[in-house]
């Protein structure tokens, strides 16, 4: 990596934009600190992947991982929706909260649809554009050509391009650079380890900044898509946005260090530390989920004949940990009065907690479960 060149700044008249070097080429790794971090990251990812195979009903819990990722990735871009608010219906929120809520929901839909699309499409510009179109559907960026690469100059930071923190390459370069990125993703002749490849892909995508809006969220989404497509993870259970959000200044500083100082090594180290910490955190979360499952199962056994109906409700709560009586009635085929009784029993057992304080339209939260993701 000693001879790495990130690119160069080219004068465009009133400003200089950055032209990144193409990355679809051979790479030599000679930094022992990176190699050691890579070994740790691979080990932790292997442990996490094992959990996805051996945790019963793993798909029940993935939706909450996706929800957390959506709130954290969107938070980096300035939205304020938390997990509890993201679980609400739009109509239940204040008017000023709804735009942020929609952006989070779009991220969830974009990620889920992109993961599903991997069954039929490779990770490619086409798939990336499809995810971007879902991401910006009907929200504040809807006028910034959703699903299409930009056709004008953009910039990062600053009120105008003259005081920008960073100016990506002109739109005329996007086709070439994204083509190179796509070739790099699928070039099996390049022996760079996968975790360094996706670190480089994320950096390069953010540097190209191919869309007018949503680049950060799509770039972070790419990390999970790559790990799933390459079979490094069997399930989409690793998301780095929480790490990036907690270390937001370092995240941006390390990206900029590459562009200004050709310091790709520091970016790799930061990224690998993120993988290690996030994988460990996810493993702890799965451990705690299994402990909670055992506690909840033990509690509902005292309900006797109604325990099977309670189990149906609890399984729904693992998917979406907020519920009302009507939903309980729908899930269990119980009459409304019987559903009310079951909800009261679950509340008495302290499995769910009423959060609205309303006489009608009460909402109940699976608070112990949500706490595991906060």
Briefly say what this structure is.
The chain is mainly α. It folds into 2 domains: 279 residues, Fido-like domain (Fic-like fold, Orthogonal Bundle), CATH 1.10.3290.10; 80 residues, Winged helix-like DNA-binding domain superfamily/Winged helix DNA-binding domain (Arc Repressor Mutant, subunit A, Orthogonal Bundle).
- Structural class label: mainly alpha
| DSSP strand count | 5
Task: Report the order of strands and helices.
Answer: EEHHHHHHHHHHHHEHHEEH
Q: What is the strand content?
A: under 5%
For the biggest sheet, the summary is: 3 strands, antiparallel
Shape: globular
User: What is the CATH architecture descriptor of the largest domain?
Assistant: Orthogonal Bundle
In whole angstroms, how far apart are the ends?
A: 38 Å
Number of helices: 15
Please, what is the average pLDDT?
93
The CATH topology annotation of the largest domain reads as Fic-like fold
- Strand arrangement within the widest β-sheet reads 3-5-4
Unreliable runs, pLDDT <50, ≥5 residues?
none
CATH C-level name of the largest domain: Mainly Alpha
Total separate domains: 2
CATH superfamily of the largest domain: Fido-like domain
């Amino acid at each position: 990596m000693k001879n790495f060149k990130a690119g160069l700044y080219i004068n465009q008249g009133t400003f200089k934009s950055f032209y990144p070097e193409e990355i679809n080429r051979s790479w030599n790794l000679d930094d022992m600190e990176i190699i050691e971090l890579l070994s740790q990251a691979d080990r932790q990812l292997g442990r996490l992947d094992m959990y996805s195979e051996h945790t019963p009903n793993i798909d029940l819990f993935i939706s909450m991982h996706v929800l957390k990722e959506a709130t954290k990735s969107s938070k980096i871009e300035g939205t304020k929706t938390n997990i509890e608010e993201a679980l609400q219906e739009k109509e239940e929120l204040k008017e000023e909260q709804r735009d942020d809520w929609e952006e989070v929901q779009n991220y969830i839909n974009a990620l889920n649809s992109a993961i599903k699309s991997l069954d039929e499409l490779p990770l490619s510009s086409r798939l990336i554009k499809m995810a971007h179109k879902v991401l910006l559907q009907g929200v504040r960026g809807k006028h910034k050509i959703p699903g299409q690469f930009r056709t004008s100059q953009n910039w990062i930071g600053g009120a105008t391009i003259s005081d920008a923190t960073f100016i990506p390459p002109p739109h005329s370069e996007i086709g070439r650079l994204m083509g190179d990125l796509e070739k790099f993703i699928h070039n099996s002749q390049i022996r760079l380890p996968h975790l360094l490849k996706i670190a480089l892909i994320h950096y390069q995508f953010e540097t190209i900044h191919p869309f007018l809006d949503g680049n950060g969220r799509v770039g972070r989404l790419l990390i999970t898509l790559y790990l799933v497509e390459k079979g490094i993870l069997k399930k989409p259970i690793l998301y780095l946005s929480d790490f990036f959000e907690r270390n937001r200044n370092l995240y941006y500083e390390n990206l900029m260090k590459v562009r200004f100082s050709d310091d790709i090594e520091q970016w790799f180290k930061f990224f690998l530390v993120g993988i290690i910490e996030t994988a460990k955190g996810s493993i702890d979360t799965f451990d705690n989920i299994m402990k909670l499952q055992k506690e909840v199962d033990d509690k509902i056994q005292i309900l006797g004949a109604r325990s099977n109906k309670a189990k149906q409700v609890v399984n729904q709560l693992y998917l979406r940990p907020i519920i009302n009586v009507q939903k309980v009635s729908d899930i269990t085929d119980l009459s409304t009065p019987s559903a009310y009784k079951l909800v009261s029993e679950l509340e008495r057992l302290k499995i769910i907690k009423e959060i609205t304080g309303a006489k009608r339209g009460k909402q109940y939260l699976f608070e112990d479960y949500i706490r595991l993701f906060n």
